Amino acid sequence: MSRHRIVSPAEVQRLIAQNQPIVIHEGYVLHLGEWIDKHPGGRLAILHMVGRDATDEINIYHTNKALLMMTKHRIGRVELPWANLEPPIRSPEFYKNLKLGEKSGVIAHGDGHRSRKSVDLGSAAAIISKKLMPVNSCVRRTSVTPDPEKLPLLESEAPTIDTAEDKLRHREQFATEEEKREIEEGIRDNPSLDVATQRAIVEDYRALHQQFKDEGLYQCRYSEYAKESLRYGFLFAAFASLLYCKWYLSSAVFLGLFWQQIMFTAHDAGHRGITSNFVADTLIGAFIADFCCGLSIGWWKSSHNVHHLITNMPEHDPDIQNIPLFSTSPTYMKSILSSFYNFQFVWDGACDFMVPYQKYTYYPVMALARFNLYFLGWLHLCSPRAAQLGAAWWTRPLEIVFMCCYWYIFGYLLVWVTLPTWPIRIGFVLTSHLVTMILHVQITLSHWGMPTSDLGPTESFPQRQMRTTMDVDCPAWLDWVHGGLQFQAVHHLFPRVPRHNLRRGQELVREFSAKTGVKYHCYNFVEGNKVVLSRLEQVGQMAKMMVDCQKSMAETGESGLH
């Protein structure tokens, strides 16, 4: 089969309908069936690009060596510009055929030249995360179709079917109307979605990418890490010295600050922004995250890679799937099924009760979020997702060993053996973990206050990244406090750029924004917090309004549906 033959859109659709993972890159059709199980970034990163022109996503995430390797997966060319198709994993059919897809598995096919694989594009998320739980364990898995035998026998036992259906229909209608309103705002406040306008934005973005390369912004400045190592060493030495002096709670504060600061480097390693070598950066990231902090870098990478590609999509971005504790989008009122977790997030009474108050629970939950990260890390390492890493199979046992070492050192030698009494132990653990809430606020700040609306397949990658991401403005001398997380919009446009070069990158992105009309959102830390709290309050008020409306329906007997 010639790699230069023209492949028609109809043929691409036919191949995708046959469960072939087809992606468009640089005008070529890539058949990734042989690669999808070996992809270090995970299967979902590929599945969300099926049928799409993923040129920009692929180019910014991969080194020249990796891009050269991709050429062997070419099966032809397409005529540009390419009209993006909806990836099967994002289609409603994915939800309808989920259980059927789980049974179909993976089928091998031949094309006369070499063996290719078809991948169940509708159930791949289920296969790799069948046992993986979501962020909040209190969310219940539900069947898409209720079992008639389990419905109440008497009307007095529960609301009638009509009443329950009316409530569900009303909630979905309410959520749909709010979604439409936000889509209208997004279309109004951003450049036109017509092909010509978005194509011009893409061309300017690619020119900007080349400017990043020409200025050497992909080159890591190791001298900056030498300076940071001194700061890490000071914080750890302060913790150890105060612990030796038996100033236990004071030492806990410095341990928390050490964790908060050193995780910035783990973030860099997770994006291969230190050495650009997968093995070296994985080892650095695992040592810092798993050994020093007890957090799974593998879990973080599995969710973070998807987050970067489909930022703030409620059904697909795991970073914003947090009900019933938090909802940043009215979409969650529809009880969405997460393609990442293969788990239905049910909007139930707990959401009705908690979401209206989420503005007030934001900081308390952030203060305790580290305990949830421990849970998620171990859950990931025990799940099939962690085992399906192809050539990177060794990362799973490495992480398990490192995390066991962390709990032996921190949990046993420090908390159990060194600390003298239970009140001190509890106080030490809580204090050290509460301090890290700074990091959790920094992580959520750039996205939780931003739009979650989907403006359609014509929206370009750079416009969506800038529309859904916010930067934090601060003086250069405060960069060490934020650790590069204040440049999230720049980082989402160029995720492999080392963070010490992001401040220069910010200047170039501002110029790009002025030229293209794509708005660059940047607020100081206090203003950014206000944006997040305002969004939480807005969605909370939506939830309260819906609950009040349903109560009125129950009292008056009016369905409110027209």
Automatic annotation (TrEMBL):
It is found in: Membrane. Pathway: Lipid metabolism; sphingolipid metabolism; Sphingolipid metabolism. CDD domains: Delta6-FADS-like. One of its GO terms (cellular component) is membrane. InterPro entries: Cyt_B5-like_heme/steroid-bd (IPR001199), Cyt_B5-like_heme/steroid_sf (IPR036400), FA_desaturase_dom (IPR005804), Fatty_acid_desaturase (IPR012171). Its EC number is 1.14.19.18. The chain crosses the membrane at residues 232-258, 278-300, 362-379, 400-419. Keywords: Heme, Iron, Lipid metabolism, Membrane, Metal-binding, Oxidoreductase, Sphingolipid metabolism, Transmembrane, Transmembrane helix. Its main location: membrane. The keyword Transferase does not apply. GO terms for biological process: sphingolipid metabolic process. It is a multi-pass membrane protein. It is an enzyme of class 1 (oxidoreductase). GO terms for molecular function: metal ion binding; oxidoreductase activity, acting on paired donors, with oxidation of a pair of donors resulting in the reduction of molecular oxygen to two molecules of water. The keyword Aminoacyl-tRNA synthetase does not apply. It comes from the Eukaryota. Residues 4-79 form the Cytochrome b5 heme-binding domain. Belongs to the fatty acid desaturase type 1 family. This is Delta 8-(E)-sphingolipid desaturase. It comes from Cucurbitaria berberidis CBS 394.84.
